[in-house]
Amino acid sequence: MTSSIYAICGIESSRLLRTTPQEARSPENPKPAFPERFWIHLLRSRSLALEILDHNVRDVTVGDEQTHRKILQAGQHKFTDLWLRDSSFAGLGILCLEGGSSANSAVVRDCLETILSKQRADGLLPRRVGGGSNRTGVIMAALGIPRKPAEHLNTWDFENAQHTTPIDSNPLIIWLSAEYVKATGDQTFLTKNFPRILKAAQWLATQEKDGLLEQAPFADWKDVVARGGKVLYTNALYYNALTSLSEMAKMMGPKGHAFSDSLLAKAQSVKSQIQRVFWDPARGHFKDTEKLSDFSPDGNLLAVLFGIADPNQTRLVLGKAEKLLEKSRLPLSALDGKYPDSMKPFQLRLGQIPGYHDEYIWPWLGSLYALATTETWKRTGKKDVSLLLRSLETLNAVGRISVRDRDFQEIFEGKDAIPVRRLLYKTEKGFSWSAGLYLKALTETISAAQEASLVSKGAVEKAAKEMALIDGQ
Description:
By secondary structure, the protein is mostly helical. It has one domain (4-17, 27-471): Alpha/alpha barrel (Glycosyltransferase). The protein contains 17 helices and twelve strands.
């Protein structure tokens, strides 16, 4: 591949990078006239995401098993093992490929079965299945020593570096399992694994207090922030896990229908509790935790995506996210504000990355915003095309930084979205979570744009052919 694609779609072309659907409108046509190069750019970033995911798929054996499985490693430097959280979000994107029916979906199945097979007796799922100690890998990465990805996975972790049990592992696997079965119709997988999936949900029920999950500090994806108690992000995932489990129960046949209905009733109860505990009418968003009122995009955008937020709340939450979008060329930072230093462990100061889970920018959150906005368009009668324009603008922003760097990376900082690089910590390259969720959001949004007649299928196909010609030069 030559650099000509980047001359047209990359950082050398400032005109393209500033081209947005909003700017492409004409007074005579309220719907935007997208330039072909806009679609070429989006398709170029899609191709890049696919390349990263393809690179991160590898063959392994697990534990005492001799059977080879394909797993998705989280990254290409420090995080070369199967991480539950990363593979769950990335797996949603992989399932978009070819309707989920191909070798691509087999990767998702193998990731799910690997993780489910290492379930603890009480129902908790491992946060990582890997080769050797993760701490060793992090130290090697800090020292600049390459670590060869393990071909045999012989370690499964249930606690993180803060010696805390992650609470979001189980609901993420329940969500991905349901999406996998819906995409593939793999009844064999469902029949075999439903008892384990149910056990994962039962473990979550043991973590409840007053109708919501209650967690220890450092117990979710923000595992270097001591947000504990009732947290919006994990409870939004809990609600979705219950509805996902309800869908799978119904697929188990007539005997599962009554159980499915009871799960939906439980989900509605959790939804009501989320509204009662987290919604802050004065601020116009859901609180990060029961005690912290800052706007955290993760839980708020999941509340929109899953339909927890009502229409007015959705409008306010998306408005808050849009203001946060304006702070950098790349969306979104992990918090609109900063957590107190007392909530952060010394490792962040040692590594000179104090803003890791508040000030730093995580591209997957930008993709989550686009996904939530596109879902809002679907849920509200498919009339307000400005929602799709916002999604496309955001995906264009994420994509152009990825094309600039020729990579989907982990974390960035500053107005110009510079990849974080410190002496002891550097942003992970080839980050599956960023690439996979971008792929999911882009696929859904382009499909919606075609349905809304913002672009024809033929126009996208023409852009794809043009991109192939450029790449071949």
